[in-house]
């Protein structure tokens, strides 16, 4: 009789038991309610995850935020798409965490550190989850996903089912296929949403758009429409156009100032704004997928497959068309903006619109986002306006979500204390 099928069954059974026991109880040998150790797995390599680690280190030094009595430990950093993860099951020291943050989470930055004997490498987020379940020294874990891709959604589902909290600024999972990724990530059993998933930073960054939307939903008011302008690369480009810059120069300026993705066509395609609007639609219960969203791409299909250098070289040929649209806007005393609109039936359109002086959108600066929510009780719209992008706003939103999930993870302690 072959032995390997039995071994596979035993291994899977052991994993299932480990996951479900972890979801109910602290790690063996630890006292959950006394220690309240929260291990953070930081996913991503950009400026936001590095700034988040620095902010967490500052918090632990000064205890400026109440995480329901929890103490935070960074136990893993990195991204499977760009070299994997560094993990320390007992938690990196804050000196190590700050060194990693300052050096792009590179392992080489710890070569002179004497306390790296337990630092391990993992190729995937799933490997990190398994390591923490088996060897982790923290009582509860939160994955903070700041990556710019959706390659690891299955690992996130695995982690949530094992009792990990999920904090997301990564929009790709929530804007993916509704049944395959969104529902499996967000719901325990539809329509019951998981309390272990929080993603305020995905829409509006530091602007409290999702909390406002959910408070209005809770009142029973009839939501009739949402209109948004996000402070992003396209907003910067449109403001530059209104100030007289040709479209080609505005795009290059946004790129050189680090406001766009590595390939600015990702921004100009409108997909970033479309993902945000899709998340809002799903928050209202719509099962819309990206294929149903009407998105205006600011570049023609003929430029989509060019090399980056050829793309930049070809941009001046678009200047005249944008100048003509701006002339129409000036003639009608309106401003031309790239916005998103969500109707009551779940239909979404993202693209260029004209706004007159009576609109809340008329005097927006490019650094400002605006969220207008029209309801039966508020036909003139509830309007949120403010700095909706930038590293500081995103980090603040992530910290708030970490604090919220820490309280969820330690609910049993507070009910019995």
Overall description:
This protein is an alpha/beta fold. It folds into 2 domains: 34-107 and 117-206 and 394-412, NAD(P)-binding Rossmann-like Domain (Rossmann fold, 3-Layer(aba) Sandwich); 210-387, Dihydrodipicolinate Reductase, domain 2, CATH 3.30.360.10. The chain is 41% helix and 19% strand. The protein contains 16 helices and 15 strands. The strands form 3 sheets. It has a 7-stranded mixed β-sheet with strand order 4-3-2-1-5-6-9, sandwiched between helices. A 6-stranded mixed β-sheet has the order 11-13-12-10-14-15. Strands 7-8 form a two-stranded antiparallel ribbon. A hairpin with a 4-residue loop joins strand 2 and strand 3 (84-87). Helix 3 (47-62) packs antiparallel against helix 4 and helix 3 (47-62) packs across helix 15. The longest helix has 21 residues, at 4-24.
């Amino acid at each position: 009789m072959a032995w390997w099928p039995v071994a596979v069954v035993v291994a899977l059974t052991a994993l299932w038991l480990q996951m479900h026991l972890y979801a109910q109880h602290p790690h063996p040998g630890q006292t959950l309610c006394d220690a309240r150790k929260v291990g953070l797995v930081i996913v991503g390599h950009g400026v936001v995850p590095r700034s988040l680690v620095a902010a967490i280190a500052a918090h632990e030094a000064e205890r400026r935020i109440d995480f329901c009595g929890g103490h935070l430990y960074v136990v893993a950093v990195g991204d499977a798409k760009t070299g994997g993860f560094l993990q320390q099951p007992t938690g990196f020291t804050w000196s190590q965490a700050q060194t990693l943050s300052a050096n792009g989470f590179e392992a080489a930055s710890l070569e002179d550190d004497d306390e790296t004997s337990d630092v391990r490498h993992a190729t995937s987020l799933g490997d990190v989850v398994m390591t923490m379940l088996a060897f982790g020294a923290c009582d509860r874990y939160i994955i903070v996903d700041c990556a710019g891709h959706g390659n690891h959604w299955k690992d996130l589902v695995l982690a949530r089912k094992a009792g990990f909290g999920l904090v997301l600024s990564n929009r790709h999972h929530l804007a993916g296929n509704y049944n395959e990724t969104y529902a499996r990530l967000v719901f325990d059993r539809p329509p019951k949403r998981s309390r272990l998933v929080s993603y305020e930073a995905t829409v509006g960054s530091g602007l409290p758009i999702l909390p406002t939307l959910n408070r209005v939903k809770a009142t029973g008011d009839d939501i009739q429409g949402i209109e948004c302008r996000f402070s992003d690369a396209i907003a910067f480009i449109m403001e530059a156009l209104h100030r007289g810059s040709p479209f080609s120069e505005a795009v290059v300026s946004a790129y050189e100032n680090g406001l766009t993705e590595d390939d600015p066509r990702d921004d100009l395609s409108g997909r970033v704004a479309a993902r945000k609007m899709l998340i809002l639609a799903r928050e209202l219960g719509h099962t819309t997928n990206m294929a149903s969203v009407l998105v205006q791409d600011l570049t023609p299909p003929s430029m989509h497959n060019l090399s980056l250098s050829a793309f930049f070289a070809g941009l001046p040929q678009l200047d005249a068309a944008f100048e003509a649209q701006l002339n129409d806007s000036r003639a009608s005393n309106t401003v031309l903006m790239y916005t998103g609109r969500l109707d009551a039936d779940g239909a979404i359109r993202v693209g260029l619109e004209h706004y007159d002086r009576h609109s809340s959108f008329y005097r927006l600066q490019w650094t400002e986002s605006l969220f207008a929510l029209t309801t039966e009780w508020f036909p003139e719209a509830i309007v949120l306006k403010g700095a909706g992008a930038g590293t500081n706003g995103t980090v603040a939103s992530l910290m708030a979500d970490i604090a919220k999930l820490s309280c969820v993870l330690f609910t049993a302690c507070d009910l019995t204390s």
